[in-house]
Design a protein that fits this description.
It contains 1 helix and 15 strands; from the N terminus they run βββαββββββββββββ. It is mainly beta. The protein has a domain of 79 residues: Alpha-Beta Horseshoe (Leucine-rich repeat, LRR (right-handed beta-alpha superhelix)), CATH 3.80.10. It has an 11-stranded parallel β-sheet, with no helix packed on it. A two-stranded parallel ribbon has the order 9-11. Strand 3, helix 1 and strand 4 form a beta-alpha-beta unit. The longest helix is centred in the first third of the chain and has 5 residues. The chain is elongated and about 65 Å long. The N and C termini lie far apart (58 Å). The mean pLDDT is 89.
C-alpha cells in the first residue's frame, strides 16, 4: 500500500520534519520553498519513490541531500529554473522519470548516469540558452529512455538522441526547419510531435530515418513546401498525420 502525502499550495516555506517517515509519494508543488534547506528530505529517504517540488522558485539543489533519496524513481522539477546542472546532481539516483527540468546551463554529462531513465522532460530557456550551448552528447548513455519532451528549443540542434526512443515531443518550440540529419538514427521512433513550433521548411529527407513512425503531429505551423517524398521512409507505418492549421500557402513538390 502506497503512502501519499499532498502538501501542494500550502504556502510552505520550509520542508516539514514531522511528516510520516514511510511516505512513498510526496507532493510539495506550488509552495514557497525557494532555496531553503532540503535537509529534512533525508528523513524520508528510506521509502520515498516520487517527489514533486514543482513551482517553488528553486535555483539550487544540494547534491548530497538528493543522493540520500536512494529509492526515488520519479522527480518533478517543473516551474523551477536551476542555475546549473552539473555531472553529480543525479549521480546516486536510479530515476525512471524526470519531469520539467530547466537550467541556465547544463553539464554535457548531466544525465549520463541515469541509465534507468525511461521518461525525460527538459525545458530549455530560449533567452538564456542558445542552440550551440546544448551539448550534443547530453543524452549519451540513456539506454532505457523511451519518452522525451524537449520544450522551447530554438531550432533543432544536432543532438545524439537515443536510438531506442519511442516518443519525442518538441511541440511549442521554434524549430523553423528539419534537416535530414536530425532524426536519422531514430528508426524505433513511433510518435513525433512538432506541433505549434514555427515550422516552415521541410526537405524530402527530413524524416528519412523514421522507418517505424506511426503518429506525426505537424499541426499549427507555417509550412510552405511539402515535398512529395517527405513520408517515404514511413509510408508503410504512418497511421496518423495531423496537418491542421499547418500549411501556409504551401507548394507540393
Amino acid at each position: 500500500m502506497e503512502y501519499v502525502v499532498n502538501c501542494t499550495r500550502k504556502d510552505i516555506k520550509n520542508l516539514p520534519d514531522n511528516l510520516p517517515r514511510n511516505i512513498h509519494r510526496l507532493d510539495l508543488s506550488f509552495n514557497s520553498l525557494g532555496n531553503s534547506s532540503f535537509k529534512n528530505l533525508e528523513l524520508y529517504g528510506n521509502d520515498l519513490m516520487s517527489l514533486s517540488i514543482a513551482s517553488n522558485n528553486v535555483t539550487i539543489i544540494n547534491t548530497d541531500i538528493l543522493s540520500s533519496l536512494t529509492h526515488l524513481e520519479e522527480l518533478d522539477l517543473t516551474g523551477n529554473l536551476l542555475d546549473y546542472i552539473d555531472d553529480r546532481l543525479f549521480l546516486a539516483l536510479n530515476l525512471r522519470k524526470l519531469s520539467g527540468i530547466s537550467a541556465k546551463m547544463f553539464h554535457h554529462s548531466a544525465f549520463w548516469k541515469l541509465v534507468s531513465l525511461e521518461d525525460l522532460s527538459v525545458i530549455f530557456e530560449q533567452e538564456l540558452i542558445s542552440v550551440k550551448s546544448i551539448p550534443r552528447d547530453i543524452f549519451k548513455g540513456q539506454l532505457s529512455l523511451k519518452f522525451a519532451t524537449l520544450q522551447n528549443i530554438e531550432d533543432i540542434p544536432p543532438l545524439d538522441l537515443p536510438v531506442q526512443l519511442d516518443n519525442l515531443d518538441m511541440s511549442g518550440s521554434n524549430v523553423f526547419r528539419v534537416s535530414p540529419d536530425i532524426f536519422m538514427n531514430l528508426n524505433n521512433l513511433r510518435e513525433l510531435n512538432l506541433s505549434n513550433s514555427s515550422l516552415s521548411s521541410l526537405e524530402s529527407e527530413s524524416f528519412i530515418g523514421l522507418s517505424s513512425l506511426s503518429d506525426l503531429d505537424l499541426s499549427r505551423n507555417k509550412i510552405v513546401t511539402l515535398p512529395n517524398k517527405l513520408f517515404e521512409a514511413c509510408r508503410y507505418t504512418l497511421d496518423y498525420l495531423d496537418l491542421k492549421f499547418a500549411l501556409s500557402d504551401f507548394i507540393a513538390l
